[in-house]
Amino acid sequence: VSLAAVWEDWGIRPSAVIGHSQGEIAAACVAGALSLDDAARVVALRSRAIVALAGKGGMVSVPLPVEQVREELTGYEGRVSVAAVNGPASVVVSGDVAGLDELLACWTETGVRARR
Question: Between the CA of residue 109 and those of 36, 102, 106, 113, what are the distances in Å?
Fold first, then answer.
């Protein structure tokens, strides 16, 4: 949103905007469908809802190809699974905290910069 404001200050107005996850809300704001106050409110409410829905589980972002992540999830069936594929080397896994902790430790030991 702030970058779009800088562009607009320079006279550049995008003809289209897109976003993913929280970026969808930012795109709606830049497009004029949401005011900045409403967009900020939606972001805050969405974040609270995600925390409430997660319960005792969690998510980890893994900078690896989905095929490799799926292989590394062998033995974690029913505990951890692929939640989203955001790009060729950007995967999110979700599941129980103990399973995520084990995987996060393994990835960290091998130099993979996975993060909660």
Answer: 42, 11, 5, 9
Contact 81, 95 (CB under 8 A): yes
Take residue 85 and report the two structure tokens written for it.
Answer: 């594929």
How far is the C-alpha of 52 from the C-alpha of 75, rounded, in Å? Answer: 27
* Strand, coil or helix: 24: helix
Global pTM?
Answer: 0.67
Residue-level length of the chain: 116
The per-residue pLDDT for range 33-91, each reduced to its tens digit, is: 999 999 999 999 998 888 787 778 899 999 999 999 999 999 999 999 999 999 999 99
C-alpha of 56 from chain center: 18
